[in-house]
Amino acid sequence: MPAGTGSSVRTCINGLNALSGVGLLSVPYALSQGGWLSLALLAAVAAACWYTGTLLGHCMDADAAIRTYPDIGERAFGRAGSLVVSAFMYAELYLVATGFLILEGDNLDKLFPGASISLGTVSLAGKQLFVVLVALVIAPTTWLRSLGVLAYVSATGVFASVIIVLSVLWAAAVDGVGFSGRGTTPLRITGLPTALGLYIFCYGGHPVFPTLYTSMKQKSQFPKMLVICFLLCTLNYGAMAVLGYLMYGDGVLSQVTLNLPAARLSSKVAIYTTLLNPISKYALVVTPIAAAIEERIRGAVGAGAAVSVAVRTLLVLSTVAVALAVPFFADLMALVGSLLNVGVCMLLPCACYVRIFGAPSMSRGEAAAIGMILALGSLVAVTGTYYSLMKIIHELM
């Protein structure tokens, strides 16, 4: 594997950014679903995802030609492996982009309640209006081929995550919200599938890890770099979960910002910071999907700039349609975590590692760790997906 040029510090910052996402807003809700003891599951999920991240690094060592996550799938299982990994990755990115629109609509509706607009016979109000308006703002950013500026803006994700937690703390300690929540449930078995799905959603950085590994000058530092990233992000997620649950108890909403008193400065800081991140990251999330579609079109009939704009615009419109049809942020993200993130972050790294290196070459400790992760991942994939789908169907009925 050729050496990269990135320092461990820069790679660590990029890793933190990959793991710092909108899942931060839903961890208080996840805690309310699972109860206080589910915090142990947050730590267990973090440890499992860190370990599978190191397995991806070992897979990268197996072949100098491996550069991406789909390359690992191809090295392990041939063309079928590459297709499976790509399918999971693209589906995850698509639904995360959809979640961005739902989040924007929810929080803007809180800031500007009662907003509506009518164009002829078409009338839009509340969350639906803001989802459409945000899409109109975001769509031109997806047309850009060079995402250098957007990448720079999205790198503020780490800083933004810390700001949101501090703003929520300020709302509780200074702006009068207090810690009067009545969340006293030690463990809620029926809510564990949802809680686990949301916890796993928080650690969906694995598609980026091969790129980070390739960029490192000292690749032997990769596991230690991941330890730092996962530890710091888990502390941030854990702090937000505890804060939100202490503040609002079992009444905490799917995004804790929706509970905050809108008139307070701390609330405005938290909400506006929350709104900035998805707008800056949406194009980065959908570009890999658009590029894959354009590559297929180019191979078949050729694709120019007009086709590229059309593909990306249709992608935005499709995510708008899904966001309007299934406007349930926590349930959708729990589904992404249970079905897609489990595959990308737990099951596929283990399967690829075992396939590439072979079970006989593993130590007992490795075999035990991989076995436990596969068991946990399979359990979450089945139960979490079922419960998330049932909740979404119930909401739609």
UniProtKB/TrEMBL annotation:
The entry lists its GO molecular-function terms as: L-amino acid transmembrane transporter activity
- Report the Pfam families cross-referenced here: Aa_trans
Q: Where in the cell is it found?
A: Membrane
User: What's the main place this protein lives?
Assistant: membrane
Statement: the UniProt record of this protein carries the keyword Nucleotide-binding: no
Q: How does it sit in the membrane?
A: Multi-pass membrane protein
> What stretches pass through the bilayer?
12-31, 37-59, 80-103, 115-138, 150-172, 192-213, 225-249, 300-326, 332-356, 368-389
Q: Is Transmembrane helix a UniProt keyword of this protein?
A: yes
Q: What is this protein called?
A: Amino acid transporter transmembrane domain-containing protein
